[in-house]
Amino acid sequence: MMAESGSSEVAVIGNVDLTSTELENNIINTMVERGTALLRRMEINVAEAEKRTGKNTVNMQETYTVYLIETRPAETIAEGGTPAAPDTLWRRYSEFELFRNYLLVTYPHIIIPPLPEKRAEFVWHKLSADNLDPDFVERRRVGLENFLLRVASHPVLSDDEMFLRFLTDEKRWKEAVLETGFQDKVDSRLKSLSAMFRVKNPDKQFTALKHYSDDLNTIISQLLRVRAKVADRLYGVYKVHGNYGRVFSEWSAIEKEMGDGLQSAGHHMDTYAASIDDILEEEEHYADQLKEYLFYTDAVRSVCRKQDLIQYELEMAVQDLSTKKQQKEELTSGTVRIFSLKGMTTKLFGQESQEQRESKLEALDLSIHEGEEAVNEKNRECKEFLQTAWGDIERFREQKDNDLREALISYAIMQISMCKKGIQVWSNAKECFNKM
C-alpha cells in the first residue's frame, strides 16, 4: 500500500473502497504508485508457487519452493481483445534474498522493502510453522509479489538494471549481480556496531529515528502476540459452538413437535463453528501486513547504521588530520606537548638535523593536504547521505502512515463483519426456536 504526494495514478490490488460492503469479505493486499516508468510499461505478478525436489550445493537431496514471476506489457486492451501472453520465470526465495542484499549494499540511503518471513512467526496453535505448508507458501507468494511491487513503485529502485534482469533473465541474472562486486562492499555488522557505540556526535534526527524504529518494532511485536492469543481463544470459542449443534441434533431425535426446529438450529450452530477457519485465515493476511512493517523497522535501522558509520569515518578523518597538524606544530617549534615515542627518541638520541626536519615537514605537509581532502570528501559524503536518506525517509513515513491506517481500518471492518455473522446465526436460531 504505497501512496506518495503528487501521485495521480494509483494501482490497487484488492478492494480498498472503505465504503463498500464487499470490503468486509475481501483482503487488502497492497497499493502501489503507478508513477514510476517501470510500472507504467510493465505488469508484475508472482502467479503461483511450486514445490520441487533437487540436490543442493553439497549434493544432498532437498525439497524447496519456487515462485513463478510473470511480467507483461501494461497496455490497454481493446474490448473483446486478448492480453499479451506474459513472460515467465521461476525464482527461489534465496534468489529474492540475494537480490535484496544487493539493493541494501547498492542503495544504503534507501529504506529497502522487506521480504516476507522465511519461517512463520507469531503463530497460534492451529497454524503450521512448516515453511512448506500450502497456506504459508501462499501467504509468502503474496508477500513476494508485494516486495516486487514495492521495488517497482520506488522512484529510484525501479530504474535499477539488476531489478529488470531479475524479472526477465532467469539464467544469467545471478552471474550478473555477483559481477557487480556488491558483496565486497558489504559493511561488516561488527564495524557498524563499533561505529554506533564510538561515534561522538551522532545526528539527532537519525538518533530519534533509530529510537522510533525500536519502539515501533516493540509495539508491532506486542500486537502480533496479542492477536495470536486472541486467535487461539476465538478458535476454541467457535469450535465449542459445534457442541450446541451436536446437542440440538440429539435433542431433536427425542422430540416430535420441536424436532425440526432443534435440528435446524443445530445446523446453524455447526455452520457458525466451521466459519472460524476462513475467518482466521483471512486474519493472517492482515497479520502479514503488520509483519511487513515489523521487518521494515530493521530496514530503517540499516539506514541509521550506515549514517553512524559515515559519521564515524568523518570523525576519524578529522581526528587524524588534527594529529598530523599537531605533529607539524611540534616539529616546527621543537616542543613535544604530550608524552610520545618522538619525545623519548629526542631525549635519547638528540635533536634531528635541519635536513631531516625539513624532509619530515614536507612529508607532513603532503599528509595534511591529503587529510584535508579526506575530511572534505567525508563531509560531502555525509551531507549527501543525509539529504538523500532523509528524502526517502519522508517518502517511507507517508507510505507507512497510509498503509497502517488502511490495514487497521480494514481489520476493524472484518471484525465487525464477523460479529454481524454471529448475530445472524443466533437470529436464525431464534427463528427456528419460534417455529417449534
Can you walk me through this structure?
The protein is 64% helix and 9% strand. It has helices at residues 37-41, 93-106, 134-153, 161-168, 173-179, 189-198, 204-252, 259-274, 276-333, 341-349, 354-434, and strands spanning 10-13, 30-33, 42-55, 61-73, 87-92. Strand 3 and strand 4 form a beta hairpin. Helix 4 (161-168) runs antiparallel to helix 5, helix 6 crosses helix 9 and helix 8 packs antiparallel against helix 11. The protein is elongated and about 125 Å long. GO terms for molecular function: phosphatidylinositol-3-phosphate binding.
Could you give a short description of this structure?
By secondary structure, the protein is mainly α. The chain has helices spanning 37-41, 93-106, 134-153, 161-168, 173-179, 189-198, 204-252, 259-274, 276-333, 341-349, 354-434, and strands at 10-13, 30-33, 42-55, 61-73, 87-92.
Mean pLDDT: 82
Low-pLDDT segments, ≥5 res: 1-31
Per DSSP E runs of 2 or more residues, the count of β-strands stands at: 5
Report on the biggest sheet. Answer: 3 strands, antiparallel
> From the helix content, strand content and strand pairing, which structural class follows?
mainly alpha
- Number of contiguous helices: 11
Helix content, binned percent: 55-70%
Domain PX: 45-174
Keywords: Protein transport, Transport
GO molecular function, one term: phosphatidylinositol-3-phosphate binding
Pfam families: PX
